[in-house]
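Batch 3, record 17
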Amino acid sequence: MNLSSCYLFAGLSQSQLEYISGIATSMPVNKSSWLFHRGAPAECLYTVEKGAVELLIEVQPGIEIPINMIRPYNGCVGASCLVEPYRYSLSARCVEDGTLSVIRRADLTPLIEQHPHLGCILMTNLARHLLERLNETRQEVQLRFMSLVRSATF
Amino acid sequence: MNLSSCYLFAGLSQSQLEYISGIATSMPVNKSSWLFHRGAPAECLYTVEKGAVELLIEVQPGIEIPINMIRPYNGCVGASCLVEPYRYSLSARCVEDGTLSVIRRADLTPLIEQHPHLGCILMTNLARHLLERLNETRQEVQLRFMSLVRSATF
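Prediction for the assembled complex:
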């Protein structure tokens, strides 16, 4: 398991990474199976060891907005399990047969409480990631706003 | 100074709040003065003691997208100074004469390193806040997407 390549675990020491590895379990997944749907209680964090997981918004049956594709060493899935209200903010579907590492919130929370230094690094990494996503999404809103302004002006 | 009402400092103990108060200084501000512009190096975090600060995106001269209005006991301004790349992600302008509390990153960073428990709470609060903002902004993108789908369908 190569946790250190996931943005959440960047900057952790070897021993801190071993604490995380110690609570992770391996899970085989099948192509087209759903990991979770937006709004469901967020109980687990997943990293992709093999295969790929698609993050998306289900707008209505048959209509989806793709958000991101997570592959091995390319982030993680379900980071909403780290912050209240502990609800997944996107839906996640496996796009290939593969293997995930699963970290249960019930195991991660006490680890963070026991090791606040680890927790501080992990939460700083999460905040940085969320700020990047927020800036990207605001950029999208701004582009649409500008095209509206242009069409209203000309 | 009532720091505990700011989302960033929620859940801190009295002694942790006193550490934060110990590095905060008071600053009078004038109506219409800019605190910072988007993209500038984020060196300070501000809470509003008196008055109001508007957060906005400057699209082009004379065109702005309002994002939020921060008043006393209603959040803080400049939380980007807590995460890399330490650049303000919005612009901030005072809309009334008032008083701000200023916390310099140069003072906050060592405090967090010295007190990882405090840092972990603060970063968890920041991550939760950013996830809320991200969900709201995605909701906005989704609404625009749906109206596009509707206009394409009917």
